[in-house]
Amino acid sequence: MKRHLACWIAALGLMTGLVDAKPNFLLIVADDCTYNDLPLYGGANAKTPHIDELASKGLVFNQAYLAEAMCQPCRAELYTGLYPMSNGCAWNHSASRPDVKSLPHLLRPLGYRVGLAGKGHVKPAAAFPFDEVAGFDKSCVRDPTEAHTLTGISEYMKKADSPFCLIVALVEPHVPWVMGDASKYPPKRIKLPPNIADTPASREHFSNYLAEVTYMDSQVGDIMGALAESGKEDETLVLFTTEQGSQFPGCKWTNWNTGLHTALIASWPETIAPGQRTDALVQYADVAPTLVNLAGGNTRNRFDGTSFDGVLTGKTTKHRKYVYGIHNNLPEGPSYPIRSISDGTYRYIRNLKPDELYIEKHLMGGGRLNNPYWATWVGADPLTQQKTYELVKRYMRRPAEQLYQSQLDSYEMNNLAGQPEHAEVQARMSKALDDWLKTEDDPGAAVDTPEALKAARQGKHLYGKGVGAVELYGAGIAPK
């Protein structure tokens, strides 16, 4: 009798432990990788066997986006669940508001260890107090990238005292493109995307970029191997994402689809059905509330995004109606503010200074880190290389409004704005964008000024929620 009672008590304790168990979270973040350069999303060149394997075990999001196609703003959005104007990081190389709460603040009270290995690129430290985990290069511009080791992340995963949330932020395929074996991608055999001019220099650099994509894929395989070796694979939600687009014209630093659209794979054995895809519309701001919700925390009134846990578990196939985008060009070049919105089918873009030339100093400036293929674009003969000339013009001279049917035109080469048959869609999207800007207290062009950027770097944000900028928007500072 005593033996049966002891077994019953042990079983009850095990059941209670299962009920109370919280999942681990592993976020793997690539750096500057255009989503549809991956074969998973139709890429014609790159070989990514480890990413493909991860996708086969989980759920692929066809429609995942971030709000700003630059490293620091998109990471701040990912870690806080707040849009750029809400968390304060609305420019690259700036800072979030000092009182912003991120994953360490949100998950530690729920019993989690929250660590980051690799690239940080978020400020201030008080807003992003991650445990520092060794093993992966922190510098995205080192030549060559330091070899990674798995000891740090393995030890972090194996600790038995509490569940973990671990971010492994890789630095590939960010420039300089020097890692991997470029001989696997002969330049003459590459199929270039339609938004990249076909010059010998473009082909050479695209080859080097593809080699880094494959090198990054090998790192994903090593990280997943470390998770399997830890014995915690079955109890861990893995999210893999590629950040914004690569450093080619029309990708990073833009509000086009190839800038804001990101890859997103979710794997969680026994919880997420393998080999699935979803068209549910999600955004980086939705990730933090999803993790907090799965950890048993309160997500009410804390985020701009909302939890998509129902999509992960197959309870729903839809999430949000719109995803939103912004761009402030300082300090990457002269002021050139952009705002955008997408419903997954159409994308509407509003360029707030359409009379100005768009200039991005890293991409267009040449130099060791900036891959000087741009000179071969602008040096092309407009009489014999008309397509190259048109791509230069597309990049540097943009109309006040752009509308694309992104599902059919993923590189967004055909602007439908102003066409009568698309007038209703354009008006609806424009109105929805206005509504979001007002909600965010975003005055538009006034944000992309030296004064606003300087204040943000000093932790004294001039615009965004809670600082009264909505009155400025009403006064017409943001062109419509």
Short précis:
This protein has 16 helices and 13 strands. The chain has helices at residues 2-20, 49-56, 71-80, 84-87, 103-107, 151-158, 200-230, 257-260, 287-294, 309-312, 361-364, 374-378, 386-396, 423-439, 450-457, 470-474; strands spanning 24-29, 59-65, 113-118, 131-133, 164-169, 236-241, 261-267, 276-278, 282-283, 323-327, 338-342, 346-351, 401-405.
Polypeptide structure, described:
The chain has 2 domains: about 20-320, Alkaline Phosphatase, subunit A, CATH 3.40.720; about 325-475, no CATH class. The protein is about 30% helix and about 15% strand. The chain is built from 16 helices and 13 strands. The chain has helices at about 1-20, 50-55, 70-80, 85, 105, 150-160, 200-230, 255-260, 285-295, 310, 360-365, 375-380, 385-395, 425-440, 450-455, 470-475; strands at about 25-30, 60-65, 115-120, 130-135, 165-170, 235-240, 260-265, 275-280, 280-285, 325, 340, 345-350, 400-405. Helix 6 (about 150-160) packs parallel to helix 7 (about 200-230). The protein is globular. The protein starts with a helix and ends in a 6-residue tail after the last helix. The model is unreliable at about 1-20 and about 470-480 (pLDDT under 50).
**Architecture of the largest domain, according to CATH?**
3-Layer(aba) Sandwich
- How many domains in all? 2
Radius of gyration: 23 Å
Derived structural class? alpha/beta
Mean pLDDT: 92
> Would you tell me which CATH topology of the largest domain applies?
Alkaline Phosphatase, subunit A
Residues in β-strands, percent: 5-15%
Q: How many strands appear in the DSSP assignment? A: 13
Low-confidence stretches: 1-19, 468-480
Helix and strand run: HEHEHHHEEHEHEHEEEHHEEEHHHEHHH
From the N-terminal CA to the C-terminal CA, the straight-line distance is 79 Å
CATH superfamily of the largest domain: Alkaline Phosphatase, subunit A
Helix content: 25-40%
